[in-house]
From TrEMBL:
CDD domains: FHb-globin (cd08922). It comes from Sulfurovum xiamenensis. Belongs to the globin family. This is Globin domain-containing protein. The keyword Lipoprotein does not apply. The keyword Transport applies. Coiled coil: none annotated. Residues 2-136 form the Globin domain.
Amino acid sequence: MVLSEKTVEICKKTAPLLVEYGEDITTRMYEILFMNYPETRALFPEALEAQYKKLAGAIVAYAANIDKLHVLSHTVDDIAKRHVTSNVKSEHYPMVGASLLQAIKDVLGDVASKDVIDAWKEAYFFLGDILIGREKELYASR
Ligand code: HEM
């Protein structure tokens, strides 16, 4: 599967906004995630704000490099290894995805049109599927 041209275009155009409001979006995302899916709280290190913000920070960084995954600061392999150590499973991806998209809507308001949200949804699950695939292999080889 490849990302549609429209998605890449919208994500690149809106990435600076996500970076600018990154902290607000991140904070809101964890609020929603832990409120709606309290079982995910245990996956993250105890109350280490700066640490658990890594995840949303990475997703935002991905935004800026949507069409060149290889320049991500962390490789897919590093992220997958960290996830497997943290016991992240495929069923958690829709939870984080829904929370992230809702956080973007809450923080950006009208700017987060349906097109913008759809593009981010596609981009999130695109990378998510790659990570899930790699994590399956790592779990199987443990
Ligand atoms: C496309 C989706 C995702 C991306 C791009 C992503 C990215 C990252 C990155 C870059 C890190 C930091 C790795 C490191 O420090 O070495 C990380 C850590 C982590 N991620 Fe993800 N992640 C995603 C989805 C998820 C999901 C669905 C969960 C489940 C709730 C999750 C839970 C975690 C946890 C628990 C950590 C470790 C936190 C820490 O030690 O500070 N991630 N992720």
